[in-house]
Specification:
With about 425 residues, the protein is of the alpha+beta class. The protein is built from 12 helices and 11 strands. The structure holds 2-acetamido-2-deoxy-1-O-phosphono-alpha-D-glucopyranose (GN1) and magnesium ion.
């Protein structure tokens, strides 16, 4: 049975009937049985659709937050550009790697469009569900961490030859820390906040570190780092792990796939995965950046990313880890001071608690700066040693080939002479 419900139902709020009616706008090829909230995104609303036969058993339905993404159709354009590029590349690379890798695909509406806008202006899109795999809110162990790193490396590697000009800017200013800082200054100047001890701590915290906020943007201005296609949000929750093999099989949530620095992604992945207590913990004093997890993630990441990273890219990895943790703390803190207008919250203090977690994490990164720098240096050295070993072997092979060719010509001159 297929459900076709009138659009006025959308005005009734977000109940089953409403959601089923929205889902019925998409061409799943089967009847919609159920639509349930899914995942724990801080910005968009995500639902899992269960279907009765047809082309899919399950699908993911999302309502894009239009307060955040002012032009959600750009997200769709980027997803299309990405998928067109990836189809060929994924087939090539997974065949080479001999392992599963999947990309969530857009499911069209019954009218053949890539998205559906409801009567209230809600912007919906549906994507394929990746079966037999799940995401985790926190990293489970070093093996999991290495897989998360692999997923980001695989993603970057697959899009490293997608011309960045083909991607639109879906979220202007995203990860440009100096912009978050000037917004914070404006909010703070508006002084509509309670000067609690936590707020005083946050204000001091930001004041002591603000001079480093432009570290990556300054490197861009000097021409040391350049814009490339990025994921934008490679936190641990966005990496799908195969239930049987424990291997990463997809990096989902493509809303912030756009031009940026790979450092935003590397920093975000590390700040998210090396914090085993997760973003939502309230055990602030126990928040720690785990360097063993950091080493595992980088190992997984570099196994795929080594071929496109430049020397300058390596130079800024530590700064990226520090900066993105600081930046997310600043974003949560600003949102708290502004009255929680950006991130979804459970209560009025939720963003403040999240900010404290990221600030503690930043302090832990600072306290272990030498260890983190050493991990990066050692992995960089191992890759460069492998490169020299390969180039040594290549030159030995080429010497042997020229010796063989010399012998061949000597033999043929002897034959010609006799
Ligand atoms: C937001 O919506 P979600 O959970 O995928 C945010 C990210 C943050 C993340 C922190 C568009 O991602 O930048 O790192 O929360 N996304 C946007 O959990 O701002
Ligand atoms: Mg996201």
């Amino acid at each position: 049975m297929c459900l076709h419900l009138p659009l006025f139902l959308y005005y009734m709020g977000e109940n089953q009937t409403t959601l089923i009616a929205v889902a019925a706008a998409f061409d799943f090829g089967g009847a919609v049985l159920d639509v349930q909230r899914y995942g724990a995104g801080n910005v968009n609303d995500t639902f899992l659709v269960t279907l009765d036969g047809g082309s899919y058993q399950k699908a993911v339905l999302q309502r894009v937050n239009r307060q955040v993404f002012r032009r959600p159709e750009l997200i769709i354009l980027n997803m299309r550009a990405f998928m067109d590029h990836l189809r060929a590349a994924t087939a090539r690379q997974t065949a080479m790697a001999g392992r599963r890798w999947e990309v969530p695909d857009l499911i069209p509406t019954r009218d053949g469009a890539d998205y559906f806008v409801d009567n209230t202006g809600g912007f919906w899109r549906a994507t394929t569900f990746i079966a037999g795999a799940q995401t985790y809110a926190t990293v489970q162990n070093c093996r999991h961490a290495k897989e998360v790193g692999y997923a980001l490396g695989q993603f970057h590697s697959l899009i490293s030859d997608l011309p960045v000009e083909r991607l639109r800017d879906t979220l202007e200013g995203f990860h440009i820390t100096p912009r978050y800082l000037s917004h914070y200054d404006q909010v703070l100047a508006g002084n509509g906040y309670k000067p609690s001890p936590e707020v005083r701590y946050g204000v001091n915290f930001v004041a002591q570190r603000r001079r480093w906020a432009a570290v990556l943007e300054d490197a861009v201005a000097r021409g040391e780092l350049t814009s490339r296609p990025i994921h934008g949000d490679p936190k641990v929750d966005n990496v799908m792990i195969d239930n049987d093999t424990g291997q990463a099989v997809s990096l989902i949530d493509l809303d912030t796939l756009k031009p940026g620095l790979v450092h935003y992604d590397i920093g975000d992945c590390l700040r998210s995965c090396c914090n085993p207590l997760g973003e939502e913990t309230e055990a602030f004093d126990e928040v720690r950046f785990e360097t063993d997890l950091c080493a595992a993630i980088l190992k997984g990441y570099l196994s795929q990313a080594r071929h496109f990273l430049t020397g300058k890219d390596y130079d800024y990895i530590y700064d990226a880890v520090w900066l993105i943790a600081f930046e997310l703390g600043l974003r949560f803190f600003t949102d708290y001071l502004e009255g929680n207008v950006y991130f979804k919250t459970k209560d009025a203090e939720h963003n403040l608690r999240r900010a404290l977690v990221q600030f503690r994490l930043t302090e832990s990164i600072e306290a272990q700066a030498d260890t983190i720098q050493t991990i990066i240096r050692e992995q960089r050295l191992a890759i460069s040693n492998q490169r020299s070993a390969i180039s040594y072997q290549q030159s030995a092979i080429s010497d042997q080939l020229s010796a063989i060719s010399d012998q061949r010509s000597a033999i043929s001159s002897q034959q010609a002479a006799s």
